[in-house]
Protein backbone atom coordinates (compact mmCIF):
# COMPACT_ATOMS: atom_id res chain seq x y z
CA UNK A 1 0.00 0.00 0.00
CA UNK A 2 1.30 3.45 -0.87
CA UNK A 3 1.47 6.40 1.53
CA UNK A 4 -0.87 9.36 1.08
CA UNK A 5 0.62 12.44 -0.57
CA UNK A 6 0.68 15.95 0.82
CA UNK A 7 -2.10 18.07 -0.59
CA UNK A 8 -1.13 21.43 -2.15
CA UNK A 9 -3.27 24.42 -1.33
CA UNK A 10 -5.99 24.71 -3.98
CA UNK A 11 -5.48 21.12 -5.14
CA UNK A 12 -8.58 19.38 -6.50
CA UNK A 13 -10.73 17.06 -4.32
CA UNK A 14 -9.08 13.66 -3.75
CA UNK A 15 -10.80 10.82 -5.59
CA UNK A 16 -12.04 8.21 -3.16
CA UNK A 17 -13.31 4.75 -3.87
CA UNK A 18 -14.40 1.76 -1.82
CA UNK A 19 -11.32 -0.37 -2.39
CA UNK A 20 -13.14 -3.68 -1.94
CA UNK A 21 -15.78 -2.99 -4.62
CA UNK A 22 -14.09 -4.48 -7.69
CA UNK A 23 -16.28 -3.12 -10.50
CA UNK A 24 -16.38 0.38 -9.01
CA UNK A 25 -12.60 0.37 -8.56
CA UNK A 26 -12.11 -0.56 -12.22
CA UNK A 27 -14.58 2.11 -13.36
CA UNK A 28 -12.92 4.70 -11.14
CA UNK A 29 -9.44 3.82 -12.40
CA UNK A 30 -10.73 4.02 -15.98
CA UNK A 31 -12.19 7.47 -15.26
CA UNK A 32 -8.88 8.53 -13.68
CA UNK A 33 -6.88 7.39 -16.72
CA UNK A 34 -9.24 9.45 -18.88
CA UNK A 35 -8.81 12.43 -16.58
CA UNK A 36 -5.01 12.11 -16.61
CA UNK A 37 -4.93 11.95 -20.41
CA UNK A 38 -7.42 14.75 -21.02
CA UNK A 39 -5.72 17.08 -18.55
CA UNK A 40 -2.12 16.45 -19.58
CA UNK A 41 -1.92 15.52 -23.23
CA UNK A 42 -2.80 18.67 -25.06
CA UNK A 43 -2.49 17.23 -28.55
CA UNK A 44 -4.95 14.46 -27.76
CA UNK A 45 -8.65 14.97 -28.43
CA UNK A 46 -11.16 12.49 -27.03
CA UNK A 47 -13.29 10.61 -29.56
CA UNK A 48 -16.59 8.88 -28.87
CA UNK A 49 -17.19 6.87 -32.01
CA UNK A 50 -17.70 3.55 -30.19
CA UNK A 51 -20.06 4.99 -27.60
CA UNK A 52 -21.96 6.86 -30.32
CA UNK A 53 -22.35 3.61 -32.26
CA UNK A 54 -23.82 1.95 -29.20
CA UNK A 55 -26.16 4.89 -28.55
CA UNK A 56 -27.26 4.89 -32.20
CA UNK A 57 -28.14 1.17 -32.16
CA UNK A 58 -30.04 1.57 -28.89
CA UNK A 59 -32.00 4.55 -30.17
CA UNK A 60 -33.06 2.67 -33.31
CA UNK A 61 -34.16 -0.33 -31.24
CA UNK A 62 -36.19 1.80 -28.83
CA UNK A 63 -37.58 3.64 -31.87
CA UNK A 64 -39.02 0.38 -33.21
CA UNK A 65 -40.59 -0.38 -29.84
CA UNK A 66 -42.06 3.12 -29.54
CA UNK A 67 -43.47 2.94 -33.07
CA UNK A 68 -45.09 -0.41 -32.31
CA UNK A 69 -46.61 1.01 -29.14
CA UNK A 70 -48.08 4.06 -30.85
CA UNK A 71 -49.32 2.13 -33.88
CA UNK A 72 -51.03 -0.46 -31.73
CA UNK A 73 -52.65 2.30 -29.70
CA UNK A 74 -54.01 4.01 -32.82
CA UNK A 75 -55.01 0.82 -34.67
CA UNK A 76 -55.72 -1.82 -32.03
CA UNK A 77 -54.89 -5.48 -32.50
CA UNK A 78 -55.65 -7.39 -34.76
CA UNK A 79 -55.24 -4.56 -37.32
CA UNK A 80 -51.72 -3.91 -36.06
CA UNK A 81 -50.65 -7.55 -36.30
CA UNK A 82 -48.16 -7.15 -39.18
CA UNK A 83 -46.63 -3.97 -37.76
CA UNK A 84 -46.26 -5.55 -34.33
CA UNK A 85 -44.69 -8.67 -35.79
CA UNK A 86 -42.19 -6.65 -37.83
CA UNK A 87 -41.30 -4.30 -34.97
CA UNK A 88 -40.92 -7.14 -32.48
CA UNK A 89 -38.61 -9.10 -34.73
CA UNK A 90 -36.60 -6.00 -35.69
CA UNK A 91 -36.24 -5.07 -32.04
CA UNK A 92 -34.80 -8.43 -31.03
CA UNK A 93 -32.53 -8.53 -34.09
CA UNK A 94 -31.19 -5.11 -33.09
CA UNK A 95 -30.67 -6.29 -29.51
CA UNK A 96 -28.62 -9.16 -30.89
CA UNK A 97 -26.63 -6.80 -33.12
CA UNK A 98 -26.02 -4.53 -30.13
CA UNK A 99 -24.73 -7.44 -28.09
CA UNK A 100 -22.38 -8.53 -30.90
CA UNK A 101 -21.21 -4.92 -31.21
CA UNK A 102 -20.41 -4.78 -27.50
CA UNK A 103 -18.59 -8.12 -27.54
CA UNK A 104 -16.55 -7.80 -30.72
CA UNK A 105 -16.31 -4.15 -31.67
CA UNK A 106 -16.26 -2.29 -28.36
CA UNK A 107 -14.76 -5.10 -26.22
CA UNK A 108 -13.05 -3.64 -23.14
CA UNK A 109 -12.31 -0.20 -24.62
CA UNK A 110 -13.12 2.70 -22.34
CA UNK A 111 -11.30 5.57 -24.04
CA UNK A 112 -10.57 6.72 -27.58
CA UNK A 113 -8.57 9.70 -28.72
CA UNK A 114 -7.08 11.29 -31.82
CA UNK A 115 -3.53 12.61 -31.40
CA UNK A 116 -2.78 15.41 -33.80
CA UNK A 117 0.55 17.22 -33.63
CA UNK A 118 0.08 19.00 -36.95
CA UNK A 119 3.05 17.40 -38.72
CA UNK A 120 2.35 13.67 -39.01
CA UNK A 121 -0.89 11.92 -39.87
CA UNK A 122 -3.23 11.58 -36.89
CA UNK A 123 -2.72 8.78 -34.43
CA UNK A 124 -5.89 7.08 -33.22
CA UNK A 125 -5.59 5.75 -29.69
CA UNK A 126 -7.67 3.10 -28.00
CA UNK A 127 -7.27 2.38 -24.33
CA UNK A 128 -8.90 -0.66 -22.75
CA UNK A 129 -8.80 -2.25 -19.32
CA UNK A 130 -9.70 -5.47 -17.60
CA UNK A 131 -10.01 -6.61 -14.05
CA UNK A 132 -11.14 -10.08 -13.06
CA UNK A 133 -13.73 -10.59 -10.34
CA UNK A 134 -12.26 -10.66 -6.82
CA UNK A 135 -8.80 -10.03 -8.29
CA UNK A 136 -6.66 -7.00 -7.55
CA UNK A 137 -4.79 -6.97 -10.85
CA UNK A 138 -5.70 -4.11 -13.18
CA UNK A 139 -4.70 -4.65 -16.80
CA UNK A 140 -4.33 -1.47 -18.84
CA UNK A 141 -3.76 -1.68 -22.60
CA UNK A 142 -2.86 1.22 -24.88
CA UNK A 143 -3.13 0.71 -28.65
CA UNK A 144 -2.83 3.11 -31.53
CA UNK A 145 -3.06 3.13 -35.30
CA UNK A 146 -1.36 5.74 -37.46
CA UNK A 147 -2.05 5.19 -41.13
CA UNK A 148 -0.70 1.71 -41.68
CA UNK A 149 1.43 1.64 -38.53
CA UNK A 150 0.19 0.44 -35.20
CA UNK A 151 1.55 -0.15 -31.72
CA UNK A 152 0.31 -1.47 -28.41
CA UNK A 153 1.53 -1.94 -24.86
CA UNK A 154 0.04 -3.70 -21.88
CA UNK A 155 0.59 -3.19 -18.17
CA UNK A 156 -0.69 -5.39 -15.36
CA UNK A 157 -0.45 -3.99 -11.86
CA UNK A 158 -2.25 -4.46 -8.61
CA UNK A 159 -4.69 -1.67 -7.77
CA UNK A 160 -2.67 -1.28 -4.60
CA UNK A 161 -0.08 0.54 -6.73
CA UNK A 162 -2.49 3.45 -7.18
CA UNK A 163 -4.89 3.34 -4.25
CA UNK A 164 -4.04 4.20 -0.64
CA UNK A 165 -5.12 2.40 2.51
CA UNK A 166 -8.08 4.81 2.76
CA UNK A 167 -9.21 4.26 -0.82
CA UNK A 168 -7.77 7.44 -2.29
CA UNK A 169 -6.63 7.22 -5.90
CA UNK A 170 -3.23 8.84 -6.43
CA UNK A 171 -3.31 10.37 -9.88
CA UNK A 172 0.41 11.09 -10.00
CA UNK A 173 1.25 7.39 -9.78
CA UNK A 174 -1.35 6.55 -12.38
CA UNK A 175 0.01 9.27 -14.65
CA UNK A 176 3.47 7.70 -14.50
CA UNK A 177 2.09 4.45 -15.85
CA UNK A 178 -0.08 6.18 -18.45
CA UNK A 179 3.01 8.05 -19.71
CA UNK A 180 4.98 4.80 -19.68
CA UNK A 181 2.34 2.99 -21.77
CA UNK A 182 2.13 5.82 -24.27
CA UNK A 183 5.93 6.01 -24.67
CA UNK A 184 6.36 2.25 -24.97
CA UNK A 185 3.52 1.84 -27.45
CA UNK A 186 4.87 4.54 -29.76
CA UNK A 187 8.51 3.51 -29.51
CA UNK A 188 7.93 -0.09 -30.63
CA UNK A 189 8.30 -0.14 -34.41
CA UNK A 190 5.66 -2.14 -36.30
CA UNK B 1 -21.45 11.61 -15.44
CA UNK B 2 -21.31 13.35 -18.76
CA UNK B 3 -24.15 13.75 -21.26
CA UNK B 4 -23.35 10.54 -23.14
CA UNK B 5 -23.37 8.44 -19.98
CA UNK B 6 -26.65 9.98 -18.85
CA UNK B 7 -28.06 9.33 -22.31
CA UNK B 8 -26.90 5.75 -22.17
CA UNK B 9 -28.35 5.10 -18.71
CA UNK B 10 -31.72 6.46 -19.87
CA UNK B 11 -31.56 4.33 -23.01
CA UNK B 12 -30.71 1.30 -20.87
CA UNK B 13 -33.89 1.92 -18.90
CA UNK B 14 -35.88 2.46 -22.11
CA UNK B 15 -34.49 -0.78 -23.53
CA UNK B 16 -35.63 -2.79 -20.53
CA UNK B 17 -39.13 -1.33 -20.84
CA UNK B 18 -39.05 -1.88 -24.61
CA UNK B 19 -37.94 -5.50 -24.21
CA UNK B 20 -40.91 -6.22 -21.95
CA UNK B 21 -43.21 -4.41 -24.37
CA UNK B 22 -41.87 -6.24 -27.43
CA UNK B 23 -42.16 -9.62 -25.70
CA UNK B 24 -45.78 -8.80 -24.85
CA UNK B 25 -46.63 -7.60 -28.36
CA UNK B 26 -44.74 -10.56 -29.84
CA UNK B 27 -46.84 -12.92 -27.73
CA UNK B 28 -49.97 -11.15 -28.96
CA UNK B 29 -48.95 -11.85 -32.55
CA UNK B 30 -47.93 -15.47 -31.91
CA UNK B 31 -51.06 -16.41 -29.95
CA UNK B 32 -53.41 -14.34 -32.08
CA UNK B 33 -54.99 -12.95 -28.94
CA UNK B 34 -55.07 -9.34 -27.71
CA UNK B 35 -54.44 -10.45 -24.13
CA UNK B 36 -52.25 -13.54 -24.29
CA UNK B 37 -51.60 -13.77 -20.55
CA UNK B 38 -54.29 -13.38 -17.89
CA UNK B 39 -54.35 -13.91 -14.13
CA UNK B 40 -57.12 -15.94 -12.51
CA UNK B 41 -58.71 -13.58 -9.99
CA UNK B 42 -61.43 -15.72 -8.40
CA UNK B 43 -61.94 -19.29 -7.26
CA UNK B 44 -64.82 -19.89 -9.66
CA UNK B 45 -62.87 -22.51 -11.64
CA UNK B 46 -61.51 -24.56 -8.76
CA UNK B 47 -60.12 -27.19 -8.64
CA UNK B 48 -58.82 -26.67 -12.21
CA UNK B 49 -57.52 -23.12 -11.68
CA UNK B 50 -56.77 -21.41 -8.39
CA UNK B 51 -56.70 -17.70 -7.68
CA UNK B 52 -53.25 -16.46 -8.67
CA UNK B 53 -52.65 -18.85 -11.57
CA UNK B 54 -51.49 -17.43 -14.87
CA UNK B 55 -53.22 -18.62 -18.06
CA UNK B 56 -51.67 -18.58 -21.52
CA UNK B 57 -54.31 -17.98 -24.16
CA UNK B 58 -54.52 -18.55 -27.89
CA UNK B 59 -57.16 -17.41 -30.29
CA UNK B 60 -58.01 -19.49 -33.31
CA UNK B 61 -61.19 -18.35 -35.03
CA UNK B 62 -61.25 -21.44 -37.24
CA UNK B 63 -61.29 -23.88 -34.32
CA UNK B 64 -64.98 -24.21 -33.36
CA UNK B 65 -66.10 -23.69 -29.77
CA UNK B 66 -67.07 -26.96 -28.17
CA UNK B 67 -68.66 -27.89 -24.87
CA UNK B 68 -65.92 -28.34 -22.29
CA UNK B 69 -63.59 -25.64 -23.72
CA UNK B 70 -62.33 -23.18 -21.18
CA UNK B 71 -62.82 -19.78 -22.75
CA UNK B 72 -61.82 -16.34 -21.61
CA UNK B 73 -64.44 -13.80 -22.55
CA UNK B 74 -65.37 -10.17 -21.93
CA UNK B 75 -68.86 -8.90 -21.27
CA UNK B 76 -69.85 -5.66 -23.00
CA UNK B 77 -69.53 -2.82 -20.54
CA UNK B 78 -67.19 -4.67 -18.18
CA UNK B 79 -63.47 -4.72 -18.77
CA UNK B 80 -62.32 -7.62 -16.61
CA UNK B 81 -62.21 -10.87 -18.62
CA UNK B 82 -63.84 -13.98 -17.17
CA UNK B 83 -62.44 -17.52 -17.39
CA UNK B 84 -65.21 -20.14 -17.43
CA UNK B 85 -66.14 -23.39 -19.14
CA UNK B 86 -68.57 -23.71 -22.10
CA UNK B 87 -71.58 -25.84 -21.19
CA UNK B 88 -73.95 -25.32 -24.14
CA UNK B 89 -73.32 -24.48 -27.82
CA UNK B 90 -75.76 -23.60 -30.64
CA UNK B 91 -74.40 -23.31 -34.17
CA UNK B 92 -77.45 -22.62 -36.34
CA UNK B 93 -77.54 -18.94 -37.40
CA UNK B 94 -74.09 -18.18 -35.96
CA UNK B 95 -72.37 -19.62 -32.91
CA UNK B 96 -73.89 -18.89 -29.51
CA UNK B 97 -72.75 -20.48 -26.29
CA UNK B 98 -73.38 -20.53 -22.57
CA UNK B 99 -70.70 -20.66 -19.88
CA UNK B 100 -70.45 -21.59 -16.22
CA UNK B 101 -67.62 -21.58 -13.69
CA UNK B 102 -66.84 -25.12 -12.45
CA UNK B 103 -67.07 -23.96 -8.86
CA UNK B 104 -70.20 -21.82 -9.32
CA UNK B 105 -73.68 -23.13 -8.50
CA UNK B 106 -75.38 -21.55 -11.56
CA UNK B 107 -74.56 -20.62 -15.15
CA UNK B 108 -73.20 -17.19 -16.09
CA UNK B 109 -76.43 -15.56 -17.30
CA UNK B 110 -76.33 -13.47 -14.13
CA UNK B 111 -73.00 -12.04 -15.24
CA UNK B 112 -73.94 -11.26 -18.82
CA UNK B 113 -75.22 -7.81 -19.89
CA UNK B 114 -78.91 -7.17 -19.19
CA UNK B 115 -80.98 -8.95 -21.84
CA UNK B 116 -78.05 -11.08 -22.98
CA UNK B 117 -78.57 -14.84 -22.63
CA UNK B 118 -75.80 -16.15 -24.88
CA UNK B 119 -72.23 -15.31 -25.73
CA UNK B 120 -70.97 -15.01 -29.31
CA UNK B 121 -67.55 -15.33 -30.91
CA UNK B 122 -66.92 -11.58 -30.71
CA UNK B 123 -67.01 -11.76 -26.90
CA UNK B 124 -64.22 -14.33 -26.79
CA UNK B 125 -60.73 -13.08 -25.90
CA UNK B 126 -59.12 -16.51 -26.22
CA UNK B 127 -58.98 -20.08 -25.06
CA UNK B 128 -56.72 -21.37 -22.29
CA UNK B 129 -53.88 -23.42 -23.77
CA UNK B 130 -51.52 -23.62 -20.80
CA UNK B 131 -51.10 -22.37 -17.27
CA UNK B 132 -48.44 -21.48 -14.72
CA UNK B 133 -49.54 -21.89 -11.09
CA UNK B 134 -49.11 -19.35 -8.25
CA UNK B 135 -46.99 -16.78 -10.13
CA UNK B 136 -49.97 -14.49 -10.72
CA UNK B 137 -50.29 -13.82 -6.97
CA UNK B 138 -47.65 -11.09 -7.43
CA UNK B 139 -49.92 -9.28 -9.88
CA UNK B 140 -52.92 -9.65 -7.55
CA UNK B 141 -50.85 -8.27 -4.64
CA UNK B 142 -49.64 -5.33 -6.71
CA UNK B 143 -53.14 -4.49 -7.92
CA UNK B 144 -54.64 -4.73 -4.45
CA UNK B 145 -51.91 -2.51 -3.02
CA UNK B 146 -51.05 0.14 -5.64
CA UNK B 147 -48.55 1.82 -3.29
CA UNK B 148 -46.55 -1.43 -3.18
CA UNK B 149 -46.59 -1.54 -6.99
CA UNK B 150 -45.26 2.01 -7.32
CA UNK B 151 -42.56 1.44 -4.71
CA UNK B 152 -41.32 -1.75 -6.41
CA UNK B 153 -41.35 -0.22 -9.89
CA UNK B 154 -39.79 2.99 -8.60
CA UNK B 155 -36.94 1.12 -6.93
CA UNK B 156 -36.32 -1.02 -10.03
CA UNK B 157 -36.28 2.08 -12.23
CA UNK B 158 -33.90 3.88 -9.91
CA UNK B 159 -31.57 0.92 -9.75
CA UNK B 160 -31.39 0.64 -13.53
CA UNK B 161 -30.79 4.36 -13.99
CA UNK B 162 -28.01 4.57 -11.43
CA UNK B 163 -26.21 1.27 -11.88
CA UNK B 164 -23.27 1.49 -14.21
CA UNK B 165 -22.25 -1.57 -16.14
From TrEMBL, chain A:
<dbReference type="GO" id="GO:0005787">
    <property type="term" value="C:signal peptidase complex"/>
</dbReference>
<comment type="similarity">
    <text>Belongs to the SPCS2 family.</text>
</comment>
<keyword id="KW-0256">Endoplasmic reticulum</keyword>
<keyword id="KW-1133">Transmembrane helix</keyword>
<keyword id="KW-0812">Transmembrane</keyword>
<dbReference type="GO" id="GO:0008233">
    <property type="term" value="F:peptidase activity"/>
</dbReference>
<dbReference type="GO" id="GO:0006465">
    <property type="term" value="P:signal peptide processing"/>
</dbReference>
<dbReference type="Pfam" id="PF06703">
    <property type="entry name" value="SPC25"/>
</dbReference>
<dbReference type="InterPro" id="IPR009582">
    <property type="entry name" value="Spc2/SPCS2"/>
</dbReference>
<dbReference type="GO" id="GO:0045047">
    <property type="term" value="P:protein targeting to ER"/>
</dbReference>
<feature type="transmembrane region" description="Helical">
    <location>
        <begin position="82"/>
        <end position="101"/>
    </location>
</feature>
<keyword id="KW-0472">Membrane</keyword>
<comment type="function">
    <text>Component of the signal peptidase complex (SPC) which catalyzes the cleavage of N-terminal signal sequences from nascent proteins as they are translocated into the lumen of the endoplasmic reticulum. Enhances the enzymatic activity of SPC and facilitates the interactions between different components of the translocation site.</text>
</comment>
<protein>
    <recommendedName>
        <fullName>Signal peptidase complex subunit 2</fullName>
    </recommendedName>
</protein>
<feature type="transmembrane region" description="Helical">
    <location>
        <begin position="55"/>
        <end position="76"/>
    </location>
</feature>
From TrEMBL, chain B:
<dbReference type="Pfam" id="PF00717">
    <property type="entry name" value="Peptidase_S24"/>
</dbReference>
<keyword id="KW-0472">Membrane</keyword>
<dbReference type="GO" id="GO:0005787">
    <property type="term" value="C:signal peptidase complex"/>
</dbReference>
<dbReference type="InterPro" id="IPR036286">
    <property type="entry name" value="LexA/Signal_pep-like_sf"/>
</dbReference>
<keyword id="KW-1133">Transmembrane helix</keyword>
<comment type="function">
    <text>Catalytic component of the signal peptidase complex (SPC) which catalyzes the cleavage of N-terminal signal sequences from nascent proteins as they are translocated into the lumen of the endoplasmic reticulum. Specifically cleaves N-terminal signal peptides that contain a hydrophobic alpha-helix (h-region) shorter than 18-20 amino acids.</text>
</comment>
<dbReference type="GO" id="GO:0004252">
    <property type="term" value="F:serine-type endopeptidase activity"/>
</dbReference>
<keyword id="KW-0812">Transmembrane</keyword>
<dbReference type="GO" id="GO:0006465">
    <property type="term" value="P:signal peptide processing"/>
</dbReference>
<keyword id="KW-0256">Endoplasmic reticulum</keyword>
<dbReference type="InterPro" id="IPR001733">
    <property type="entry name" value="Peptidase_S26B"/>
</dbReference>
<keyword id="KW-0378">Hydrolase</keyword>
<comment type="similarity">
    <text>Belongs to the peptidase S26B family.</text>
</comment>
<comment type="subunit">
    <text>Component of the signal peptidase complex.</text>
</comment>
<dbReference type="GO" id="GO:0009003">
    <property type="term" value="F:signal peptidase activity"/>
</dbReference>
<keyword id="KW-0645">Protease</keyword>
<protein>
    <recommendedName>
        <fullName>Signal peptidase complex catalytic subunit SEC11</fullName>
        <ecNumber>3.4.21.89</ecNumber>
    </recommendedName>
</protein>
<dbReference type="InterPro" id="IPR015927">
    <property type="entry name" value="Peptidase_S24_S26A/B/C"/>
</dbReference>
<dbReference type="InterPro" id="IPR019533">
    <property type="entry name" value="Peptidase_S26"/>
</dbReference>
<dbReference type="InterPro" id="IPR019758">
    <property type="entry name" value="Pept_S26A_signal_pept_1_CS"/>
</dbReference>
<feature type="domain" description="Peptidase S24/S26A/S26B/S26C">
    <location>
        <begin position="25"/>
        <end position="98"/>
    </location>
</feature>
Amino acid sequence: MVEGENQDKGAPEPIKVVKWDGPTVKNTLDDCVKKVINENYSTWKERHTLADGRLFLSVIAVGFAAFALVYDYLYPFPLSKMVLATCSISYFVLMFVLQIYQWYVEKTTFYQAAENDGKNPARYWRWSSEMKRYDDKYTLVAEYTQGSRWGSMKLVKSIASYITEDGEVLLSLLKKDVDYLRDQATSKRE
Amino acid sequence: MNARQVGYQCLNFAMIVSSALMIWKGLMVVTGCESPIVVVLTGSMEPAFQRGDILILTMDINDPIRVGDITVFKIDGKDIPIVHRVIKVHEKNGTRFLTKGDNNPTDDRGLYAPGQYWLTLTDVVGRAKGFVPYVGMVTILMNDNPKFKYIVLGLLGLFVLVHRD
